[in-house]
Amino acid sequence: MGKILITGGAGFIGSHVVRLFVNKYEQHHIYNLDKLTYAGNLENLKDIQEKHNYTFIRGDITNKDFIDELFETYKFDSVIHLAAESHVDRSISNPLEFVYTNVIGTVNLLNAAKTIWGCSKDKVTENKIFYHVSTDEVYGTLGDTGLFTEETAYDPHSPYSASKASSDHFVRAYHDTYNLPCVISNCSNNYGPNHFPEKLIPLCIYNIKNNKPLPIYGKGENVRDWLFVEDHARAIDAILHSGKIGSTYNIGGHNEWTNIDVIRLLCKIMDKKLCRVDGTNEQLITFVKDRAGHDLRYAIDSSKLQHELGWKPSLQFEEGLEKTVDWYLANEEWLKHVTSGEYQKFYEQQYVNR
Ligand code: NAD
Ligand code: TYD
């Protein structure tokens, strides 16, 4: 692996991937490239920031000249690409930002990798890999039954999933046209520590703690397949090392829950943790206007990954959710900085953005 570039490493999933790799692969160097948008937070990586095999670089993947120069300087051996705009609701109000980062940013990285690795159709490039991290949302929505497999046709509905689908297509096109050694994974909804409190689970943890309403879109009947974030990071590690070049792997928890059931369970866990009478937190549940184009159900068939690479989720949802609540209750300062925007003011003074 040698020099590993991880993009979006200051975000939710990226920070867990960076931590895993920095601690596990001391002989390799991990470069974390992140623009530090509202979703990027170096507090997520406080525990590893001084490690000898870790370097943080602030920069924007949409800046082609900067990306070309970066690859020319460091000559990375592997790229794990997670940087993205990731929130569906933001994509509905500002789709263009998603096109810039998720589509153009990805193509800039593909181009830079192709150039420094000298990829072309008539040559096989050894010992290099471009790993693109994507989402199950590219497959669209399911009815009451069935699972997304790697063969399911793409059918994205939100500007977010459309931009991720587009980036996946570019990755496959670079593999087929230029022989760029690529692999893609499409994962279901993640949850766990360091999740930005605009997404359902951390938002509701924050609101329960502060006795605020818990906004449930529509009737709360939409189904998501939840996976603990560290299990996703382990899957990425397995695929990077043993995945077949040119392949796609679905990653999921076999753990389907309606939104209302997730929030009821969360309320119950937090009644106990906050020493509130049973049923207190459920009174905060508030049904609000549904999200436009809201996909009904996501569910992943991850049997290819399980059979080929021996990966499986390590945590039951109840256990993972309790662990997540414990983390948020123990990390009040993190939550305070994120909700006040304090962390961003600090970065503006510390780092030049390119
Ligand atoms: P996130 O929003 O928490 O983090 C994204 C990171 O990318 C942030 O640190 C941000 O600063 C950085 N970034 C954004 N724009 C950038 C740019 N132009 N240049 C450089 N850095 C930039 O997202 P996440 O939830 O950690 O998701 C990471 C990846 O995993 C995304 O590609 C997402 O599509 C994918 N994914 C997420 C989930 C999920 O449930 N969160 C599930 C499956 C796949
Ligand atoms: P979210 O965490 O935004 O992830 P995604 O849209 O990528 O699945 O939302 C998870 C589910 O929760 C989704 O069905 C939308 C719903 N939701 C709410 O009901 N209320 C909220 O405030 C949010 C943010 C999401």
Question: Which residues form runs of ≥5 with pLDDT under 50?
Answer: none
CATH topology (level 3) name of the domain at 3-194 and 228-254 and 299-315 and 341-350: Rossmann fold
The CATH class name of the domain at 3-194 and 228-254 and 299-315 and 341-350 reads Alpha Beta
Helical fraction equals 40-55%
Q: How many strand elements?
A: 13
Q: Would you list the SSEs in sequence order as H and E?
A: EHEEHEHHEHEEHEEEHEEHEHHHH
Query: Radius of gyration, Cα only, in angstroms?
Result: 20 Å
Biggest beta sheet summary:
7 strands, parallel
In the CATH hierarchy, what is the superfamily of the domain at 3-194 and 228-254 and 299-315 and 341-350? Answer: NAD(P)-binding Rossmann-like Domain
* Total helical elements: 12
The hetero compounds bound to this protein are: nicotinamide-adenine-dinucleotide, thymidine-5'-diphosphate
